[in-house]
Design brief:
By secondary structure, this protein is mostly helical. It contains seven helices and five strands, in the order βαααβαββααβα. The chain has one domain. The chain binds iron/sulfur cluster.
């Protein structure tokens, strides 16, 4: 979720690294996450929500919020490496290039269900619904669930970047 609250419950480094690696190696789990994303995208489309573009919400410091995600979402995202230069600014997402998201097809649930305009509560309910599905996916695949902030998770996964 893109949120301005601090709710980082990311596990210690070896736990997260192991969980992300196990998720990424589980093709069935990744397929199932893809189907959850497709369903979420359809639900968002039915709301008529429109992204105005420009990418201000991907500049976390500027927008004063943070992006939270689970290990399986991280595994999907990092299956496309971020450019080396992206780590220079920890205040924005490593996958933002100008106004564009270069990992659009792999972006986490929080990016799919966040809009600057529209009924905030509706998007929160949609997020909660699909986030529960992702949590259940972790449980059914017996891979520990956690919920961490993107930049903190990247610092754990890629400490030398
Ligand atoms: S993954 Fe893409 S949409 Fe999500 S915060 Fe990063 S650049 Fe923005």
């Amino acid at each position: 979720m893109k949120s301005n609250t601090k709710a980082d419950k990311s596990p210690r480094e070896p736990d997260l690294t192991d969980a992300v690696a196990r998720c990424g190696a589980d093709a069935s789990m990744m397929d199932r996450l893809g189907r959850i994303y497709e369903s979420a995208d359809r639900a968002v489309a039915r709301t008529g929500a429109v992204c105005l573009g420009g990418g201000p919400c991907c500049r976390f410091d500027l927008f004063a919020h943070r992006l939270y995600l689970t290990p399986v979402e991280l595994a999907m995202l990092v299956s496309q490496p971020a450019p080396d230069s992206a780590y220079a600014d920890p205040g924005r997402c490593p996958y933002q290039n100008g106004p564009r998201c270069i990992a659009y097809a792999r972006r986490p649930l929080g990016c799919r269900i966040f809009f600057c305009q529209g009924e905030k509560r509706l998007f929160e309910r949609l997020y909660e619904r699909y986030h529960r599905e992702i949590r259940s996916l972790h449980e059914s695949c017996c891979i520990p669930y956690s919920y961490g902030e993107l930049v903190a998770c990247f610092m754990q996964l890629f400490p030398n970047e």
